[in-house]
């Protein structure tokens, strides 16, 4: 009973450290990521071929396909690379993990990657202590997470070490399909328990070399190890972003497909290996044969999946959709409408009005003492919707475009740009919440609230207006001038209060920056609404 509790405790502890490590890696990468890191990653994975090469090299270097796959999940989580780019890394990592078999065949299983875990943690902690609140500290956090990742894996391996050590493989035979499936299952279970396909492959090669199991049985176990290693990425995808979950699912699909094909043609593969070793005059010992087998079927898997890469990516993009992605889906746009420019223009107009309405709602929320993070998430959703609209405009059938329709689509593209800028303004207002800094200054607080309220009224009335006749245009222009005057008055009073030392300089600067954001919002919104009115007049001419 005591041993059972110890096993359970070690299992939970190892899983806990593993999940915390993944979170630290993701957070550290996200905070430390500057334009340079983003450019390097983008260059490494610019094409699927480069992604495969990068995945292979990184896995060959660290001797852990799990670490590379989890790192790619972390990159996707942090927004450093896209899901499409990460797929190449996953494919390459599968080929790269076969290097372990070659090391085992050549020098034995002596290389211990966990030896770098503690130095990584120590170095990361030192970076965080020496330069807190900097990118160096964030990079240190990622290093600590990377070190803890290996410690978590090591604890999980140690927990089941005695189970694997007592696993008598000789009691199983590989006679017929049932026997082969049994050894396939053994490979899956061992890799899942140890969280290391390297350990499973080393054990398999050792067993085959000692004559405990036959070559075909060992081959089935290696295939099983390839399937079992996906458990690491599945575990890492818990609580991750939608794209990270898609990458994990892609690895499962890729490894399962590779395993299925390799299992089906296993005799053919070993026949090819026999021919290759004979051609190069190599000793066809089990260790070499299995290392070559592992490499061969993983390369075969990449060759099979690569032509289907875009289809797989498209399939996965429709799965694991978050609430944010669902909300960011266009309501009026689809591929069929894009073939008819007249319908497409009207659909884009309706979608743009929907974006403007959502943006206005977030501006009104930004004036209230709400959670700024929730507003930022909504703004990000609106920005994604703007991007969808922009992409749709580009896909509208070019050959059927008239000069008038082209002009309207160009105006709509400009509107999306204006609204996108408005999103940034609202996001900054939600972060700053300048009115909080004036809690002890009632007059200034009232002035700022009045300006915010009038801006909201201006945005609402301009969005709900049905036509831009001369009277409506003059009224909007008059309200815009009043907003500018009020903006200038509030700014003058803030500067005066700061000069008289009745308002702290930090508070003064915060509110002036907030005013600048609101004035930019006013101007960009006015431009967007003016173009909207012009397009509506073109589509639905009315008498002024």
Automatic annotation (TrEMBL):
Give the species: Pseudoalteromonas rubra
Database matches in InterPro entries? Na/Pi_transpt
Give the lineage: Bacteria, Pseudomonadati, Pseudomonadota, Gammaproteobacteria, Alteromonadales
Entry GO terms, CC: plasma membrane
Short name of any one Pfam family annotated for the protein: Na_Pi_cotrans
Question: What's this protein's name?
Answer: Sodium:phosphate symporter
Superkingdom, according to UniProt? Bacteria
Keyword list, A-Z = Cell membrane, Membrane, Transmembrane, Transmembrane helix
Give the main localization category.
membrane
Localization: Cell membrane
Q: Which residues cross the membrane?
A: 7-32, 52-76, 88-107, 113-130, 137-156, 176-193, 223-240, 252-274, 286-309
The membrane topology of this protein is: Multi-pass membrane protein
GO BP: sodium-dependent phosphate transport
**Which GO MF terms are attached to this record?**
sodium:phosphate symporter activity
């Amino acid at each position: 009973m005591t041993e059972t509790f110890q096993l359970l405790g070690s299992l939970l502890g190892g899983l806990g450290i593993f999940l915390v490590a993944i979170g630290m890696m993701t957070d550290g990468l996200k905070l430390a990521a500057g334009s340079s890191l983003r450019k390097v990653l983008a260059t490494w994975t610019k094409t699927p071929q480069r992604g495969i090469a990068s995945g292979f090299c990184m896995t060959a270097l660290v001797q852990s396909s799990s670490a590379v796959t989890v790192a790619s999940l972390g990159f996707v989580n942090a927004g450093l690379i896209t899901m499409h780019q990460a797929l190449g890394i996953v494919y390459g990592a599968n080929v790269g993990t076969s290097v372990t078999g070659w090391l085992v065949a050549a020098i034995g299983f002596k290389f211990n990657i966990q030896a770098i875990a503690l130095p990584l943690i120590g170095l990361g902690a030192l970076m965080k202590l020496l330069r807190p609140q900097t990118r160096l500290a964030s990079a240190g956090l990622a290093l600590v997470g990377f070190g803890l990742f290996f410690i978590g894996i090591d604890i999980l391996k140690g927990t089941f070490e005695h189970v694997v050590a007592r696993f008598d493989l000789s009691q199983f035979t590989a006679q017929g399909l049932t026997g082969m499936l049994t050894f396939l299952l053994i490979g899956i279970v061992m890799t899942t328990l140890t969280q290391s396909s390297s350990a499973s492959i080393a054990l398999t090669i050792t067993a085959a070399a000692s004559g405990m199991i036959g070559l075909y049985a060992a081959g089935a176990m290696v295939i099983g190890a390839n399937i079992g290693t996906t458990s690491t990425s599945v575990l890492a995808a818990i609580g991750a972003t939608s794209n990270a979950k898609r990458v994990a699912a892609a690895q499962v699909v890729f490894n399962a497909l590779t395993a299925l094909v390799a299992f089906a043609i296993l005799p053919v593969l070993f026949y090819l290996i026999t021919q290759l070793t004979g051609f190069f005059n190599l000793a066809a010992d089990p260790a070499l044969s299995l290392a070559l087998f592992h490499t061969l079927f993983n390369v075969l898997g990449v060759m099979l999946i690569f032509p289907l890469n875009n289809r797989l990516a498209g399939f996965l993009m429709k799965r694991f959709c978050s609430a944010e992605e669902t909300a960011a889906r266009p309501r009026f746009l689809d591929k069929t409408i894009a073939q008819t420019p007249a319908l497409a223009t009207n659909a884009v107009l309706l979608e743009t009005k929907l974006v403007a309405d959502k943006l206005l709602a977030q501006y009104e929320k930004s004036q209230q003492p709400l959670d700024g993070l929730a507003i930022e998430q909504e703004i990000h959703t609106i920005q994604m919707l703007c991007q969808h609209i922009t992409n749709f405009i580009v896909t509208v059938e070019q050959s059927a475009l008239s000069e008038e329709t082209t002009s309207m689509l160009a105006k709509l593209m400009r509107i999306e740009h204006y609204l996108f800028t408005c999103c940034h303004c609202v996001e900054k207002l939600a972060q700053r919440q300048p009115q909080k800094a004036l809690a002890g200054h009632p007059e200034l607080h009232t002035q700022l609230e009045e300006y915010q309220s009038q801006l909201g009224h201006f945005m609402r009335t301009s969005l709900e207006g049905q036509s831009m006749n001369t009277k409506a245009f003059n009224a909007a222009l008059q309200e815009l001038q009043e907003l500018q005057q009020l903006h200038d008055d509030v700014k003058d009073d803030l500067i005066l209060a700061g000069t008289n030392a009745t308002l702290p300089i930090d508070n003064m600067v915060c509110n002036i920056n907030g005013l600048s954001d609101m004035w930019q919002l006013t101007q960009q919104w006015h431009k967007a609404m003016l173009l909207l009115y012009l397009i509506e007049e073109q589509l639905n001419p009315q008498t002024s």
